[in-house]
């Protein structure tokens, strides 16, 4: 890859390929390329830079998940897609805060993307519940669960780092933690 | 089998850590037992949720790291559209401003309402007061003018020819009218309804009662048919319907009204007060009641009060007739009594004359 393409705005297909290949540099270039556009949208429509960061990251995550699950079809320019998602998310946020004055100043053309933000919203709620459940679970359960299910560490490693006398004890502990986590997760509304 | 053991089995199964034999027996177990089958599905979903959650956290961390490299502040300065301060003020505070404005408007309306400003009474009152003041001034002016006029009033101004009305007392050509009609007369003519003029002379004049009796001396005059009306000496009652018929214009004019007072101005018992709108030319005309009696002579002097006019009572006329040198026998058979007003006036026509006066 030439140096130029490493720093400039990535092409739309480059982005899709990069996300599929977990390319850190493409993600970075993607992020840097469109953030100013979204910042402009938010700060000129009653928002601040933190709002812009939240909204933009949410949009990038939506795009990322869509590409990862393989059902992303680029029907317009990626720039327009991202702008539309951010616009939609921001409108929703504004009306939640009762700050929506009835009009929004636009800087780009945009598409209707209600569907995708709705789907993302559901997933976000699940993740929130999971985060809360893990928090309530407390140590050492939280770390055991995270190490095993997220970081893919083996029971042997976990057993050593926690000082269990044998792997069976660690296993029993892990299952107990998992049961409790499930309970905490499903208890939440 | 305990829960933990079952979980271990499920996990082994899902991770593909079972031997072929173990796997086959677990699949049989799974098919037979719906509960275990559900547990497998649930476990699979839940662990994948944990994994996705981890991935999400990881992704957010990566994005945050990238974000930290951006100089957001500089970008913000560059991208911010700075609207005029008034617009910013409105954007940031429009709800507060709206509420404040509503309260202000409400307060103003309340104040107006409670001070009675909205009901317009004050305005009307002021208008009325202004009007009264104006009327007061006009009245003062009028009073001044009238006071200035007083000395001239007794000397009646008669610019050249003058005209009044008179009516027959007898078929032989005696005619009653007002003294003021013939006051300055050199020669007097009377003209009948047909437009024929006859010379007349003043037989008697009573300036104090404003009564004059004329006699037609023209040779072309033929006696009238008998007088249809009678003269009523007694006083008539208030509110009686009365009318007159006279030459206020070139053609005879009928007017009616009510007897409004038994006395004239300042309690003058010479006069009746009537509500018939009369003009100068009506002077000397008969004042008739509804039964065809002559109850007075119209005295169309100008009064200071609008709608108030006077007539000399018939009793004074009768006194004047009685005091004539030559005795007159008056008609005492009233043939108008049972007629309606239209028919009465038709009959009256031939007995009412225009009195034309030529000054000295």
Q: What attributes does this structure have?
A:
A: 189 residues, mainly alpha, Rna Polymerase Sigma Factor, Chain: A, 2 domains, 72% helix, B: Thrombin, subunit H, six-stranded antiparallel barrel, 9 helices, 13 strands, 43% helix, rod-shaped
- Structural class computed from helices and strand pairing of chain A: mainly alpha
Tell me the span between the first and last alpha carbons of chain A. Answer: 49 Å
Helix content class of chain A = over 70%
Mean pLDDT rating of chain B: 83
Helix percentage of chain B: 40-55%
Count of separate structural domains of chain B: 2
Largest sheet properties of chain B? 6 strands, antiparallel, barrel
Q: Report the β-strand fraction of chain A as a percent range.
A: under 5%
Helical stretch tally of chain B: 9
The fold-level CATH name of the largest domain in chain A is Rna Polymerase Sigma Factor, Chain: A
- Poorly predicted runs of chain A are 1-5
What can you tell me about this protein's structure?
The complex is a heterodimer of chains A (189) and B (360). By secondary structure, chain A is mainly α. Helix content of chain A is 72%, strand content 0%. Chain A has two domains: 3-112, Rna Polymerase Sigma Factor, Chain: A, CATH 1.10.1740; 124-187, Arc Repressor Mutant, subunit A. Chain A has helices at residues 3-7, 12-20, 24-43, 49-69, 78-96, 114-137, 141-150, 155-162, 167-187. In chain A, helix 7 (141-150) crosses helix 9 (167-187). Chain A starts with a helix and ends with a helix. With 360 residues, chain B is of the alpha+beta class. Chain B has two domains: 3-68; 162-359, Thrombin, subunit H, CATH 2.40.10.120. Chain B contains nine helices and 13 strands. Chain B has helices at 3-15, 20-32, 34-68, 72-79, 85-114, 121-154, 179-182, 314-322, 341-348; strands spanning 162-168, 174-178, 185-191, 197-206, 211-216, 230-231, 241-246, 253-261, 271-274, 286-289, 293-299, 309-313, 352-359. The longest helix of chain B has 35 residues, at 34-68. The model of chain B is unreliable at 152-160 (pLDDT under 50). Chain A binds chain B through residues 24, 27-28, 31-32, 35-36, 39-40, 43-44, 46, 49, 52-53, 57, 60-61, 64, 101, 105, 126-127, 130-131, 145-146, 149-151, 171-172, 175-176, 178-179, 181-182, 185, and chain B through 3-4, 7-8, 46-47, 49-56, 59-60, 62-64, 66-67, 69-70, 72-73, 75-76, 79-81, 91, 94.
């Amino acid at each position: 890859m030439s140096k130029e393409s490493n720093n400039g705005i990535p092409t739309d297909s480059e982005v899709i390929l990069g996300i599929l290949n977990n390319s850190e540099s493409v993600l970075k270039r993607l992020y840097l390329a469109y953030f100013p556009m979204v910042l402009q949208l938010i700060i000129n429509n009653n928002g601040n830079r933190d709002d812009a960061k939240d909204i933009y990251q949410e949009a990038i995550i939506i795009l990322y998940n869509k590409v990862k699950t393989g059902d992303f079809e680029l029907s317009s320019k990626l720039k327009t897609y991202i702008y539309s998602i951010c616009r939609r998310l921001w409108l929703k946020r504004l009306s939640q805060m009762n700050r929506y004055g009835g009009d929004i100043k636009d800087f780009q053309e945009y598409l209707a993307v209600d569907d995708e933000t709705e789907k993302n919203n559901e997933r976000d709620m699940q993740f929130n519940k999971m985060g809360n459940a893990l928090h309530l679970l407390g140590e050492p359960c939280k770390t055991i669960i995270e190490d095993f299910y997220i970081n893919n560490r083996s029971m042997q490693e976990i057993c050593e780092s926690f000082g269990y006398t044998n792997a069976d004890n660690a296993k029993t502990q892990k299952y107990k933690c998992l049961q409790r986590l499930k309970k905490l997760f499903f208890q939440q509304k | 089998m305990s829960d933990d053991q079952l979980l271990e089995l499920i996990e082994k199964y899902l991770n593909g850590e079972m031997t072929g034999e173990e796997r086959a027996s677990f699949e049989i177990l799974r098919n037979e037992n719906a509960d275990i089958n559900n547990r497998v599905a649930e476990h699979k979903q839940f662990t994948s949720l944990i994994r996705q959650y981890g991935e999400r956290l990881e992704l957010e961390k990566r994005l945050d790291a990238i974000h930290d490299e951006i100089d957001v502040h500089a970008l913000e300065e560059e991208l911010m559209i700075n609207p005029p301060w008034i617009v910013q003020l409105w954007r940031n505070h429009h709800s507060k401003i709206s509420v404040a404005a509503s309260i202000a408007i409400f307060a103003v309306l309340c104040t107006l309402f409670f001070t009675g400003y909205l009901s317009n009474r004050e305005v009307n009152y002021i208008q009325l007061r202004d009007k009264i003041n104006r009327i007061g001034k006009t009245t003062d002016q009028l009073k001044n003018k009238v006071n200035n006029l007083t000395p001239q009033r007794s000397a009646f101004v008669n610019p050249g020819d003058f005209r009044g009305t008179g009516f027959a007392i007898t078929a032989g050509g005696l005619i009653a009218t007002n003294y003021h009609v013939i006051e300055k007369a050199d020669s007097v003519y009377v003209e009948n309804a047909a437009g024929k003029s006859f010379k007349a002379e003043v037989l008697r004049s009573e300036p104090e009662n404003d009564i004059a009796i004329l006699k037609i001396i023209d040779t072309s005059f033929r006696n009238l048919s008998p007088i249809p009306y009678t003269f009523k000496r007694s006083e008539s009652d208030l509110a009686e319907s009365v009318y007159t018929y006279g030459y206020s214009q070139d053609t005879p004019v009928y007017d009616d009204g009510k007897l409004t007072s038994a006395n004239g101005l300042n309690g003058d018992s010479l006069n009746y007060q009537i509500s018939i709108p009369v003009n100068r030319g009506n002077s000397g005309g008969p004042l008739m009641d509804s039964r065809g009696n002559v109850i007075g002579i119209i005295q169309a002097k100008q009064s200071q009060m609008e709608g108030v006019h006077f007539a000399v009572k018939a009793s004074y006329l009768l006194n004047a007739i009685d005091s004539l040198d030559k005795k007159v026998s008056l008609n005492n058979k009233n043939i108008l009594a049972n007629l309606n007003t239209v028919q009465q006036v038709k009959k009256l026509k031939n007995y009412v004359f225009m009195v034309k006066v030529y000054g000295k």
